[in-house]
Write a structure and sequence with these properties.
globular
Length: 136
């Protein structure tokens, strides 16, 4: 696999310790990641050519994760999202999933549950990229 095609996991969480823990977990299984403390930092980042997904905290300063999910969709940014939250409820979960989220995990979650959700999200993005018509 060429490095440009390697998957990237973007992590947006305002908790620096959570970002570091997730980044360490991803590194331990050979996944590349980039972390952001606020959602709009992610928007300014050019996405790589390889498959990617977004691990997104629901409770963020400025814009909550569900609103950010809608902003991404409105901007035409297609990226599978795995939500994480310390304060989730059923209506929030339903809204996220109906809007296309891959998974909705409540903190503290099991590392394996997060990894499984990320692998599913990366597979979804990989498939979506294969189905896109290539510009010639």
């Amino acid at each position: 696999m060429n490095p440009a095609d390697a998957p990237t996991v973007f992590v947006v969480d305002d908790d620096a310790a959570m970002r570091a823990a997730i980044q360490g977990l991803l590194k331990s299984v050979g996944l590349r990641s980039e972390t952001f403390g606020i959602a709009h930092e992610f928007l300014g980042r050019k996405r790589p050519d390889g498959p990617s997904c977004l691990v997104l905290d629901v409770s963020l300063p400025g814009v909550n994760g569900l609103d950010f999910q809608r902003e991404l969709a409105d901007a035409g940014v297609q990226i599978p999202i795995v939500f994480i939250t310390g304060h989730g409820d059923i209506p929030m979960t339903v809204k996220a999933m109906k809007s296309g989220a891959v998974e909705f995990l409540t903190k503290p979650f099991q590392d394996q549950d997060l990894l499984d959700a990320i692998r599913q999200a990366l597979d979804r993005d990989r498939l979506a990229r294969q189905q896109q018509p290539t510009a010639e």
